[in-house]
């Protein structure tokens, strides 16, 4: 029997504190859950944000004003730091991880896509956890993903994943602003439901990250329509991934 495959995307807001600094215990909790799934013969691909924030932690403010060039610099410097974090934590669990960088054009039909498939299949066959991220150093304009949610969706489709779990800093999709007493969390959404009407701009900054709930709904519906069950859930909850895989009513589940 083929092993179950899932893609887990962790956003910048999950792994940072109010000062926009990487929170180590959050990464450790994430890896702990992935290690538990690995013991259950569930293959996981991790799509991780955080490189730009990690780079900014190292460099502080820089003289470059152009937003695109700033992102290239911060991400280039931050990528090795993020991988050092993950390598160390996975090593503590006796596991190995690998970095897979990509631009949007790598998913277009052709040799690049075939190479991507071969890379993921080879890593998974060896029990190595692929950690995917956008190749921010060279990914600009047309080769950029809208955000890492889109990258996670494309990876899920590429590897034939059973599920995609998008971890954010909210418990899921609500019928209003999550802080409003009258708002209710939607436990399940079908792709033809008009839930976009519930999205409200909170006005919160997202540091160096991209994407918001409106983007997540779009990606979740698109992915679910490809028969990949998709979840939006709070990545700061201790056992969120394990709870979802156990079928508990955690987050918002998107299905066909």
Automatic annotation (TrEMBL):
Encoding gene per record: proB
Pathways involved: Amino-acid biosynthesis; L-proline biosynthesis; L-glutamate 5-semialdehyde from L-glutamate: step 1/2
Record key words, sorted: Amino-acid biosynthesis, ATP-binding, Cytoplasm, Kinase, Nucleotide-binding, Proline biosynthesis, Transferase
Matches recorded under Pfam families: AA_kinase
Residues bound to ATP: 9, 168-169
Catalytic reactions of this protein: L-glutamate + ATP = L-glutamyl 5-phosphate + ADP
Domain Aspartate/glutamate/uridylate kinase: 4-234
Segments passing through the bilayer: none
Source taxonomy: Bacteria, Pseudomonadati, Bacteroidota, Flavobacteriia, Flavobacteriales
Binding site for substrate: 49, 136, 148
Family membership noted in the UniProt record: Belongs to the glutamate 5-kinase family.
Superkingdom, taxonomy of origin: Bacteria
HAMAP family: ProB (MF_00456)
Name this protein carries in UniProt: Glutamate 5-kinase
């Amino acid at each position: 029997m083929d092993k179950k495959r899932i893609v887990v995307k962790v956003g910048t807001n999950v792994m940072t504190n109010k000062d926009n600094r990487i929170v180590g215990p959050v990464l450790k909790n994430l890896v702990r859950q992935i290690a538990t799934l690995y013991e259950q013969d569930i293959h996981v691909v991790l799509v991780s944000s955080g490189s730009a924030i990690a780079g900014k932690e190292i460099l502080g403010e820089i003289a470059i004003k152009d937003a695109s060039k700033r992102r290239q610099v911060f991400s280039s410097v931050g990528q090795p730091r993020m991988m050092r974090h993950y390598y160390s934590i996975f090593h503590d669990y006796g596991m190995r991880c690998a970095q897979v960088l990509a631009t949007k054009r790598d998913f277009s039909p052709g040799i690049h896509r075939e190479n991507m498939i071969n890379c993921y299949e080879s890593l998974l066959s060896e029990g190595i956890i692929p950690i995917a991220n956008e190749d921010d150093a060279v990914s600009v304009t047309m080769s950029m993903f809208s955000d890492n949610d889109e990258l996670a969706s494309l990876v899920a489709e590429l590897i034939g994943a059973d599920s995609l779990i998008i971890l954010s800093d909210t418990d899921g999709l609500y019928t209003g602003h999550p802080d409003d007493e009258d708002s209710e969390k939607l436990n399940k959404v079908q792709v033809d439901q008009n839930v976009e009407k519930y999205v409200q701009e909170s006005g919160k900054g997202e540091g160096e990250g991209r994407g918001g709930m409106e983007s997540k709904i779009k990606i979740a519906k698109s992915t679910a329509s490809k028969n990949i069950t998709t979840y939006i859930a709070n990545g700061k909850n201790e056992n969120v991934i394990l709870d979802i895989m156990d079928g508990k009513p955690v987050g918002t589940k998107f299905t066909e």
